[in-house]
Design brief:
The protein has six helices and no strands. The chain has 117 residues and is mainly α. The mean pLDDT is 92.
Length: 117
């Protein structure tokens, strides 16, 4: 059942993104930034985390989940460190995912053979 919930929620988030691409003049980059900001806002007010707990990877893998991760990291760091947590919280919370993306990009760059256009 967890796979079905993840598929439905993740799919709905993707459908919203596709509708924004198809029916607005927003660029994909602006839509991606909007998804992260929306995740931060919903995570900051406490709405996104219950959805993430219910849907699992369907809510945590999309960019809205990354925004929620940044908000949760900031809230936790503020509780532990005070005002300094505003700066350190998002970086600490997102560092593992960012490092995994950088490392996997590096590995793929060694394995792929680029072609000139």
């Amino acid at each position: 059942m967890i796979f079905l919930k993840a598929f439905v929620v993740g799919g709905l988030i993707c459908v919203v993104g596709q509708l924004l691409i198809d029916y607005t003049k927003l660029t994909p980059a602006k839509i991606l930034v909007a998804f992260v900001v929306l995740g931060v806002i919903l995570g900051g007010i406490g709405v996104y985390q219950p959805l993430a707990d219910w849907a699992g990877a369907g809510a945590t893998v999309p960019l809205t989940g990354f925004g929620n991760l940044l908000a949760q990291g900031t809230k936790e760091a503020i509780r532990e460190q005070g005002l300094l947590g505003v700066l350190t919280g998002p970086l600490t919370a997102g560092s593992a995912g960012i490092m995994a993306a950088i490392f996997s990009g590096l590995v793929v760059s060694f394995l792929a053979k680029p072609k000139s256009k």
